[in-house]
Amino acid sequence: MFKVDQPSNSLQPLQETTFTNAGFTERYHLQEWLAKHPQALTRNSDDELLIIQKEFAGFDDTKERLDLLAIDKDGNLVIIENKLDDSGRDVVWQALKYAGYCANLRKEHIVEIFQRYLDQNEPEETRPAADVLAEFLEHDSLEEVQINQNRSQRIMMVAANFRKEATNTALWLMQFNIRVQCFKVTPYRYGNDVFIDIKQVIPTPEAESYMIGMAQKEAEEQSTTGESKARHHLRKAFWTQALEKFRVSSCSLYNNISPSTDHWLSAGSGISGVSYNLIFSKKEIRVELWIAKPSAQTNTFAFDWLHERKSAIENRFGHEIVWQALPDKKSCRITYRKPINGIADQEKWPEMVDWLVEHMTAFEKAFSTCLPELNQLIKRTFNGHDEAEIITEEAEHV
């Protein structure tokens, strides 16, 4: 690894070192880094992780402690086992034991575990753990979410070096559809600065994409529960009704959109990564502008620019809008909502559809005068500095 020295237009080599020589420990350094920034172990927002406990010791009849316990966007528990300069002989066995222990955790147990974590580590978070989990999993509540299903547990092992017995066993486990990942973490020195390089070595990113795709295909082919089928049927019927009404309205955003089984419908705003969303959930319907470009820096820039024009936008819209910067997420949301009592009462659907058409029409008009200017401003501000570079800089800063 090299550092670019711009004055001399040359590469300056970084000196590879060890965690021990650098004075870092497993528990107070490596573990804390990953707890505060678990996305160092992921490649994109679709594979985002939420840490729900560290030093987890809630296993019956044992005093063993799992380094980090996380959950992914699909509701799968993720066991993260860290080692320093050497993976050790027993790292795979430890991880498998913890995965076996965690396989028995029910939804209510996971909520309790996460609540303790929030109380101890994030006292500024005032929302209940169940609400934080539901938002992370992109649902309105945990009632309709399946968490920690059979054989869905994932294993992540992090070390500076992996012994052959560890890598061979990891590769063997993958043949049984157990999702195992090995991350090699290498520290480098340059003067007084220390840099950390994190690479996924097993499986390679290309191989993992193929494996995940095959697993998703298999999951899609399996039958869903009756409750899920009913909910999906209701959503598709509602969106069919809503889209028919939109097509005869003055709002053309959704003219080329098809009905969905999801609780949202998205339409482009003219800015890549920024969409107009309709939401139909058990608790509310809402219209929103969702700012979800790949870079958190760009999203914050766009949100702040729009928020400076808050009064003018709300005057054009005719209502007070909820502005959510969502500092714990990369994306930002600007929304207007109406509470409802469930989605099953089809007699109330026409009223809900009329509300969505009326307010999305006004919502688009309120923002339409701003977004072209914002789009050009984003292009000028980040010209020659693409979002991949911004994301890399954000990760290095963390």
From TrEMBL:
GO terms for molecular function: nucleic acid binding. Pfam families: DUF4268. InterPro entries: DUF4268, tRNA_endonuc-like_dom_sf. Gene3D superfamilies: 3.40.1350.10. Residues 234-369 form the DUF4268 domain. This is DUF4268 domain-containing protein. The lineage of its organism: Bacteria, Pseudomonadati, Pseudomonadota, Gammaproteobacteria, Enterobacterales.
